[in-house]
Structure formats: C-alpha cells, structure tokens
Design a protein that fits this description.
The chain is of the alpha/beta class and about 425 residues long. The protein has 15 helices and 13 strands. It folds into two domains: about 210 residues, Rossmann fold, CATH 3.40.50.720; about 200 residues, NAD(P)-binding Rossmann-like Domain (Rossmann fold, 3-Layer(aba) Sandwich). The strands form two sheets. The protein has an eight-stranded mixed β-sheet with strand order 3-2-1-4-5-6-7-8, sandwiched between helices. The protein has a five-stranded parallel β-sheet with strand order 10-9-11-12-13, with helices on one face.
C-alpha cells in the first residue's frame, strides 16, 4: 500500500480524522480550525475536567467562546482522556507544554510521556506532528526512535513533522488561519504530507528543510523578543536614573519609518514561551561547546526586573516616610499580559512573593481571576479585590503589573494614595504616580 498517497487523498477529500493531543491555548484553536474546514476531530487530554467541559460544549479559555465549542461538537468533534482514540486518527498533532524544571533546564516529560502514551496505539499511514516549542533535535531524538521501535519506517509507512505553534492570545488581529505555519519534515515524503495537512486549514505554510530548522525557527522568534525586551528593560533602568521617561522615548523612536521596532518594557517576562524558550537553546548549545552569553544576559536582565520594581516601590515609600514592611499593597493584574486569562510565568507572582517577604500585606485585582489560580510554584489564599473608590483608598500602594484594558485608570489615579506604574499607563507626571 502507498501510505503517502492514501493519506494525501484523505486530507484532500477531508475524510482524514484529526487527533489533537493537548487541548490548551494551542491545541484548542487547532481543533476549531480543522472542524471549521469540515474535518472530524478527536481531542485527547489527560485533564478529565477539560474533557467533560468540551463534550458539554463549554469553554475554559476566555477568548474562545462556548458557541465555537458547540459548533465544533455539532461538526463531529469529541474530546477524550483515552489515548486509545489515537488509533482512529490519521493525523496526531501534539500540543503539550515544555516547561523548565527546578534547575531551569528543559523538561520534556510532557512530550515524552505523551509520545509514549500514543505509541502503543499508532498505526501505519498516520502523520505525527509535534508543535511544542523545544530544542533542535527533539523530534529526531525523542519521537523517531519510539516510532521506529514499533516497526514503522518513517517516510514510508509513517510520517513525522515538526510545526511550531504560533499563537498570540488576546491579539484580535490574527487568527490561527492567517498566521503562517512553518513545517519541517523528517523526510521529503513527511514534508509533503505535513504541508498538505496544514495547508488545508492555514492560509500560508512555510516549508523548511528539516525538523531541526523548524525547531530552531521557533526559538529564534521567541529569543528575538526576549533579547529586545531585555534591551528595553535595561534602557528603562538607565533612563530612570537620568530622569527620562522611557515610554516617551519609545513613542518618539517609533516615528522612524524604518530600522526600528518598538518593544515595551515591563516588570519582567511572562507567558509560556518567552521566559522559557531561550533556556532550551542555551541548554542544547552547551552540548556543542557554545556559551550563549548574549541570550543569557537578556534572561538575567528580564528576570531581575521584579526586584528592581519592588526597589522602586520601596524608594517611593521611603520618600513618603513609610516602609514596605507593614504596608498594604494591591497588585493590579496577575495575568502575564493584558486582556488574557493566562497567569503562566507572570512576573506578578514574583512581585507578590517579594512584597510578602518584605513584610507587606498583599492583595490583587484582576477581572479574569476572581480567585487566585492554582499554580505549582505560587500559592496565595486571595480573591480579586474590586476596584471601587473605597477599596482603592484602603491600600498604601497600587502596583500596576498588568495593564488590562477594562480598568478605569482615571478612577484609580483619583483615589490611590500611591501608584507604581510598570506599564507606562500614565504618560503625564502626577504626585501619586511613580514610574517603574
């Protein structure tokens, strides 16, 4: 049997069944995109609560409405926690986390565990695509040997590609369909199937010569952001010492129509990509005897920003004859960026912990988190504080960590005793506003 021809035919006539493994911020939009094009989709996730919600037509991600899940269900989408469902799929797309371990080194346990759970149920004539951000060589080193151990020949009766996820939650300008998709195949046959698969639901697919190139591409994208954010964060510290507003500088520099891209400073880096992905490359580079000093320096600058912000807050208190210890501080926003319901790697968590260690009584306000989310590393028994004039006035300081659009910043400025602004919300000087 010509497995490549058969699989290409199924994709062409949309009789292929698509399996998406990991139904989070990356996997769930893919589910919807494939169902929108008429494919039947089975979603696999180890979280039984997520599976139950999806099968009831409910959503657990703010920017994905329940109506979209309900439409997908009517189109044949089903969710399950049973990996045996993988056998029914013609394509298996892996979208699981790739965090760092306690030593800040790559933790591939989610990827490896997922592949090992899938492998007993895979069959000839399938394509497996890894979308999880990782170091160059992961597909070759972790997926291929496990697939080969089942007796399959990759490129002949089984097909493997790496196609990195590209999502920007909260950005209404782009959708899964119109974000170009990079795809690198293990063999030319794998590449042909991968391009056909993604090309059926994505407007533009960008083929590259190997899985390793695709893996490195994703790292470059995120390291580019990390390094430039590190640069502007460092310039913010210098500008602060000189009495210059870095946000005014950025606005002015942005008028140059060429050769400049604006990056915004903040209290640190957050999200599941930019604070983590550079470490995947620096770790792998050591295997080749390369010390990635530039990348690591940017990481040091960005990871040091929460402490710098707390230092600025302490200075502001000192100027007013108080100390951090015994003060009441309200952290505004615990999501890692504005207008999203994702707290992963948020610098707000570090800010809360640093303030608590200094003896402050901490609280937070965030419309997307009525109660403090369950997290592996951060634990606070807190509920979101409503931003009423009375509540605002109760606190000695409001620290703007995340600049959600729905906040009434005029009200905040009117009633807050002190505001420490890490996001450049206020562009004009005020007696109760300190830029940090």
């Amino acid at each position: 049997m010509d497995h490549k021809k058969t699989l290409l035919g199924k994709i062409e006539n949309k009789t292929a069944i698509i399996g998406v493994v990991g139904l989070g911020y990356v996997g769930l939009p893919l589910v919807l995109r494939f169902t929108e094009e008429g494919y039947r989709v089975v979603g696999i996730d180890i979280d039984a609560e997520k599976v139950a919600k999806l099968n009831r037509g409910q959503s657990y991600i703010r920017h994905i409405p329940a109506a979209a899940i309900a439409r997908a269900r009517r189109g044949g989408f089903e969710a399950t926690a049973d990996f045996r469902a993988a056998r029914r799929a013609d394509a298996l797309i892996i979208c699981v986390p790739t965090p760092l371990d306690e030593h800040r080194e790559p933790d591939l346990s989610f990827v490896v565990g997922t592949v090992e759970s899938l492998v007993p149920h895979i069959r000839a004539g399938q394509i497996m695509s890894l979308e999880s951000t990782t170091y160059p060589g992961t597909t070759d080193e972790e997926l291929l040997p496990r697939i080969a151990a089942r007796g399959f020949t990759v490129g002949k009766d089984y097909f493997v590609v790496f196609s990195p996820e590209r999502e920007d939650p909260g950005n209404a300008k782009f959708s899964t369909r119109d974000i170009p998709k990079v795809c690198g195949g293990t063999t030319p046959a794998c590449q042909a199937v991968g391009v056909k698969l993604y090309g059926s639901v994505i407007d533009r697919v960008v083929p590259v010569s190997s899985t390793r190139v695709a893996e490195m591409t994703k790292l470059l994208e995120n390291i580019h952001r990390s390094v430039n954010i590190g640069l502007v964060n460092e310039m913010k510290i210098v500008a602060d010492r000189m009495g210059i507003d870095i946000h005014e500088v950025i606005r002015a520099a942005s008028t140059k129509p060429f050769g400049f891209v604006a990056y915004q400073p903040g209290p640190g880096l957050g999200g599941h990509c930019i604070p983590i992905d550079p470490f995947y490359l620096t770790w792998k580079a050591r295997e080749y005897g390369v010390h990635t000093r530039f990348i690591e320096l940017a990481g040091e600058v960005n990871s040091g920003m929460p402490a710098w912000v707390v230092g600025k807050l302490a200075d502001a208190f000192n100027d007013r004859g108080r100390s951090v210890k015994g003060s009441k501080v309200l952290v505004l926003g615990i999501a890692y960026k504005k207008d999203v319901d994702d707290p992963r790697e948020s610098p707000s968590m570090v800010l809360l912990e640093l303030l608590r260690k200094r003896g402050a009584t901490v609280a937070y306000s965030d419309p997307y988190f009525p109660t403090f989310p369950k997290m592996r590393e951060h634990r606070f028994d807190l509920k979101s504080v409503p931003l009423t004039p009375r509540q605002i006035a109760r606190y000695d300081c409001v620290l703007i960590a995340t600049n959600h659009s729905g906040v009434d910043y005029r009200l905040l400025k009117k009633h807050a005793k002190l505001i420490v602004d890490t996001r450049g919300v206020y562009d004009k000087p005020a007696r109760n506003v300190v830029k940090a």
